[in-house]
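Quick one, T. Sequence first:
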Amino acid sequence: MALILPAIQQARAAARRTQCQNNMKNIALAAHNFASAKRGKLPALGVYGPDMSQTSTPVLGLRSWVVDLLPFMDQRGVYDRFQLDQRWDSGANNAVNRTYIKVLACPDDESAIGIDGGLSYVANHGYVLETQIANVWVEPGVDWNGNTFISATSAADLDSADSDAHRNAGVFWMDIQKAGFPNTVGNTRARAEQKNTHSIDGAYDGGGQTIMFSENIWAGGEGSWANPAWTNVGFVLGLDGSGGAQSYANPSFSGFVQPGKTAQKTTINGGTGNGGVEASPGSLSGRLSAAPNSQHFGGVTVAWVEGSVGFLSQDIDRNVYARLISPAGSKLTNANSQAPLGESDF
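Structure tokens:
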């Protein structure tokens, strides 16, 4: 028995990991089918609209990328009942936003498998400052070119080169619907209506070298895959500091940058800057909850932009991991671009 039981447990773990990869493959296929119907465009990380009833926070979280992919995941019935012009948690949407969808749940993720509204998989939301509340490509708060620093509370798009560089740090971005609701200082994010989430062919670095989806047992923190909050449906690479100059080629990492093992409650290298302890499940305000992690041994399942599925080691080199997140980090826009990855680097 001492010999047989470990072998049985390993076989079951391998079967669960295979099922997780099948789930991820189906989600990636759904994203490609969506893109085929939208001239190559991937869905937004989350869709937001203006809320004229509020003045301090004039934003309505309407839906996440999961909702837009429902028709392509054999869930047309759920999608047709979802009111796209209302909040994800409105009265009408509450009737469907906690529907259990098996393909969205990793069998090793006890917070999602068999749970109404459960979600194990998250989309690539790029780089974010560890002090940032929102991750908006047009107001990144990061100075990439050393010319003009864009703070999180300054006027939008003071330096378009910084904004464009930041957009190239992630695949999925929020979609701000028209009607031009203001940001914290009263400016409308006009450019955010024009371009945000990349298209399939927008992975300049290579579709097989850019992560599209990963897994995270903290996903679905509010009990639904429909909530568009970036900590709920996305994963990020954290940048250290409160702003100022950053090197695109060699970003200054904060502690929650790499895949981790939730079984140990740590991210890789224990580097959260807080004793290695991750945020608690469902912490939508805690950026530590938005890092890839799983209950699989040694790493996490990922889907590449090209549509294939792989496994990312928790011991991956940080600089390699950073380049796998950015879809166009090697664009020769300035001397600060990232070096292209070789196929043996990861």
